[in-house]
Amino acid sequence: MRFDEAYSGKVFIMSRASYTEADAVIYGMPMDWTVSFRPGTRFGPSRIREASLGLEEYSPYADKHLEEVRYFDAGDLLLPFGNAARSLEMIEEYIDELLEDGKFPLGLGGEHLVSWPIFKAMYKKYPNLAIIHIDAHADLRVEYEGEALSHSTPLRKACELLGPENVYSFGIRSGMREEFAYARTSRMHLHKFDVAAPLKKTLPELAGRPVYVTIDIDVLDPAYAPGTGTAEAGGITAKELLEAQMLLSEADINIVGADLVEVSPPYDPTGQTAIAASKFVREMLLGWVHKRPR
Length: 294
What we know:
294 residues; alpha/beta; Arginase, Chain A; two-stranded antiparallel sheet; globular; spermidine biosynthesis
């Protein structure tokens, strides 16, 4: 499943020409097989790439230019339509390959269940891994209507794999009563409503640790990101999410991978959600990817 040649479709702006020279690899996970409300996130990766073509290559937030980062856009994994279990296996196998090759994996979703196999692969590589989860939803269900493989379950699975004390959620404003009760009693770290302020207080606890960051675009208020499958009123602004990204860039932590999920183009008529997402990906590349020795 490795993509050594340049992807034949759209690529993220300023993608390098080869896998070999890259420090980071962008890859798409076009899956929405388990969504419980509105499908369409399988089209998210390609629309984020398309929107990136309107970006400036220079970031005034990071004071860096994309030419300073070596990254390769491998395109989308060819996931079997409707087969969630096999799709997750393929994602995990691909992340295993990226980590073996020393790459920084940067995934574009797709529904949030796609993060679960990434967590598993990252944990094999980094046994002291912590997860930072930025989202509107707790995603702490054991199952959804009898299905354990659901976009509402990946963070519960992460807690069971890593230990809940190693999972940090921010911006949460939706979930079942039982999910919030689990967060309180399990020793996981769930911060409701806000992101930047609690993140700033939390980051010193993670000093020196490998951290994986997963961002669900629906952490933004629907005014800033209408193009998502399960929009929730009362979210943060795009500016606040950028502030959180800058905090992560400046923190004494080792970010070892990241993903951005749940962009759903059918509900994004002006393209504003994909435009925002592409900017967040730019800041991930500039702030979180560190060069490997040649």
